[in-house]
Amino acid sequence: MGLVQGVCGSCGKKIRRISPVPIAMTCDCYKICPICGSMMEPYVPDLDPKTYRNEDDPSWDPLDHAEKGEPLTIVAFVCRLHSPPFFSNRQPVEVQLE
Ligand SMILES: [Zn+2]
Ligand SMILES: [Zn+2]
């Protein structure tokens, strides 16, 4: 049984897992509110995502992660500790462990 490890390109956290072969796993930092550090809750938009675009927030980067021609799935999270609530469309970051 070998130990594989990798560093998340988004949050810099080192992830270790026990695996005999290199694996890819998802870092859960995309669920962390960038403002207060709390776990955000999943949010399913029922309106056009552009409705939530916050022009004042430069980190708001809707849909730019999607590859052309790929079906668009929006994983959204919301932190309700703020007023108005903070909406995030950060995508899960895959970390290659080897
Ligand atoms: Zn991360
Ligand atoms: Zn928050």
Query: Could you tell me the mean pLDDT?
Result: 80
Count of separate DSSP helical elements: 0
Helix content, binned percent: under 10%
Principal-axis shape equals elongated
Notable characteristics:
two-stranded antiparallel sheet, 7 strands, binds zinc ion, about 100 residues, mainly beta
Tell me the layout of helices and strands.
Elements: E1 3-7, E2 14-18, E3 23-27, E4 41-43, E5 76-79, E6 86-88, E7 93-97
Antiparallel strand pairs: 1-2, 3-7, 4-5, 5-6
Bound molecules: zinc ion (2 copies).
Provide an overview of this structure:
This protein is an all-beta fold and 98 residues long. The protein has one domain (3-97). Helix content is 0%, strand content 31%. The chain has no helices and 7 strands. Strands 4-5-6 form a 3-stranded antiparallel β-sheet, with no helix packed on it. A two-stranded antiparallel ribbon has the order 1-2. Strands 3-7 form a two-stranded antiparallel ribbon. Strand 1 and strand 2 (14-18) form a beta hairpin. It is elongated, with a radius of gyration of 16 Å. It starts with a strand and ends with a strand. The mean pLDDT is 80. The chain binds zinc ion (2 copies). One zinc ion binds at residues 33, 35-36, 38, 79, 81-82, 86. One zinc ion binds next to loops.
